[in-house]
Amino acid sequence: MSAIARWARGGGLSTLVLLLPLLVVFGLFAWFPIGRALVMSLQETNLVTDPSWVGLDNFRQVLGDPLFWTSVRNTVYFTLLAMLFGYPVPLLLAVLMSEVRRAKGLFSVLAYLPVVVPPVVAVLLWRFFYDASSTGVFNTILGWVGLGPFPWIQDASSAMPSLVLQATWANAGATVLIYLAALTGVRTELYDAAEVDGAGLWKKVWHVTLPQLRNILLITLILQVISTFQIFTEPFLMTGGGPQNATTTVLLQIYDYAFRFGDYGAATALSVLLALFLAIMSALYFRVTRSWSTS
Amino acid sequence: MSESVQAPEKTRQSNPEAPAGRVAPATAPRRRRARPSERGILSDFDRARPRTRWAMRTAQGLVLVMLLVAAIGPMLWLAKAAVTTTQDTLRTPLALWPNGIDWANLSTAWNEAEISRYFTNTVWVALGSWFCQLLVATTGGYVLSVLRPRFSRLLTGAVLATLFVPGVVVLVPLFLTVLELPVLGTSLLNTYWAVWLPAGANAFNLLLVKRFMDSLPRDVFEAARMDGAGPFRMLVAVVLPMSKPILGVVSIFAVLNAWKDFLWPLIVLPEPTIQPLSVRLPIIRDTVELDVFLAALLISMALPIAIFLAFQRLFLRNAGLGGAVKG
Fold first, then answer.
1. Which of A14, A16, A18 is most worth mutating to test chain B (most B CB atoms within 10 A of its CB)?
2. Whole-model pTM?
């Protein structure tokens, strides 16, 4: 009996058949493109002539593009604003919701509802809300208390905060639920101990609840950075990167290189740079989650 | 992070009765009401004090109102605006039908603006992506978890590695791959395969299913093997029925993510007649009247919300997944 026949009889053949979907799909659409990204970032590709090696020229071009630093700055600014809006609010909501005894599910459903709205629908709806005229939806509401009208996404200085406000609305619910789950793991005997020491409500939150949420706060921060650096739909549909490039992000830049200018080399070079940065962030994420589940 | 979906036995082990020193990122909010020993930040003594109770009720009432206004408000407004005339929506966006309700918007959007066609396209995109993800995740997870051939550790590692490479980073090379498949040389551009197949390469699903299958009792597999069940029989008759909970989770997130997807279908489906809603809506915005456009938005959002409300328990239990998938 040959080795191959023995292998087939031992179940090797059916294992291979069962593995086929994984191998084909991951091979063609995950592993191959990843390898290709590395190669392409060192090549000039224009789909007409054969790709040619250009060394680090693509990277030089990308890093030399003044828009690169604009988009990095914008993305960092987005992250900072997202932390400013999206950090305290979900945390406060979660702490308050964790103390709810009745209809807890209703609170969670309400908080999570915006997360399931398709991003394109949410962005287009908010774009209408942000109408800069005095009869815009938000300007009407603010007009009732004598504020505005504000230019929202029409103005370079308020465009980014407007985008972040929308993104926070769309994502806060998921963060609330993460915090809520983490809060159920807080060691409650510490509250008893704190009370014996005469701690009031705020002291209990500050000295018992928050320190135990430290890890989850770090994790949501990392996840925030990872997803912010991939932000696309919001600026693409809301402002198109404007006004005056105030909302251009790294991914918008990649899209423009590839699908507006047909410069696939530059697009992949920027992708690879982004990948490096995100890989560092993900590694950090896994490190934190691991140390956290073994502690 | 995949702590969130636990196999039956595991849940039993991590009994909340034990001091929960380790925090799971997205485990089910455990029911605390029933057990007298459990408490929150406020002690029962605190709760009994009238002033605290009053303050707590006010705070929670405020939270509820805030959630209602912030979360449901925009959707209710959209529902209102979808049946309001353009003139009214532009002049007095917050008035309730000063000139009557305009139901015709919905049918105009569905028929004339061809939302019906894009809705069907979206359903196709979602169903195919769902099938592909489920096929790859179940067969792959089964081989890596139950059959465990010699190279399975290496393969698991190779799948895990793709988790570290966010989808957007391979955007351009993936596009060029779809444009001309290696070996076959055919182009998937303007076919749904271009969306379905890459959707199947989801490492997160695969690892989720593998982890779940890892926790299934192995003596059942042994017994089935003794009874003469081959690898295929075992998958269909033993492993899949036991994996229903995790397959439900994967299915629902697969459908919703396909519904949400924008950038990838935008790139690989340039032909307007086959585009899904997400790609079509920004263009419809410029071609139809405002009231019809808002009606189209409402229709596009209805199905995901209905799915969420129907399976809310499952969502709330696995809420952490959404964020983790992106990573």
1. A18
2. 0.85
